[in-house]
Amino acid sequence: MPARPLSDETLHLIDAVRTALAHRSDVEERALFGTHAFFVDGKMCVAVKGEELLVRLPPERHGELQEMQNTRELSPGGGMKGYFWVEPNGFSTRAQWSFWIDEALAYNPQAKAALPKKKRDAAKARPATAKTVAAAGTRAKSATTKAAKPLAKKPAAKKHSIFEADD
């Protein structure tokens, strides 16, 4: 069954996220579970579905963030801590929009990247040995010592059609 065309509101929201992340060189867009997802440094950061944003935030702040207005958990059972849907009223001003985008980007360096499906399946198929555990530790250690990429300067914020009001 072919995918339904996206509504104008969804396309505007996707464009707004794209604009907000334009200063980064490590952004990739792809479909993910019925959303249009934006991956930063290989990790899901923000996604759009309909007129809502899905943001990935620190799991340790889950309780605080679930109490905010215009947000709801991705998984009410608690299986996906740190993932929140933000309704349009939750990002209708520039300050609200910046809060969600900045929070998601701030958490992204600490977020864990999911293994590609081939590697995930291979890891499940073979038992861990002392050698593979040691090798994984070495890879993780060397990954943390790499120098951070300098970010391009953020362009001046432009008014986007998703904002009802500007602060």
Automatic annotation (TrEMBL):
Q: Where is the composition biased (Basic residues)?
A: 151-160
**Pfam families, alphabetized:** TfoX_N
Give the compositionally biased regions (Low complexity): 125-150
In terms of InterPro entries, this protein maps to:
TfoX_N (IPR007076)
Q: Where is this region: Disordered?
A: 117-167
Q: Which residues form the TfoX N-terminal domain?
A: 21-106
Signal peptide range equals none
Protein name listed in UniProt: TfoX N-terminal domain-containing protein
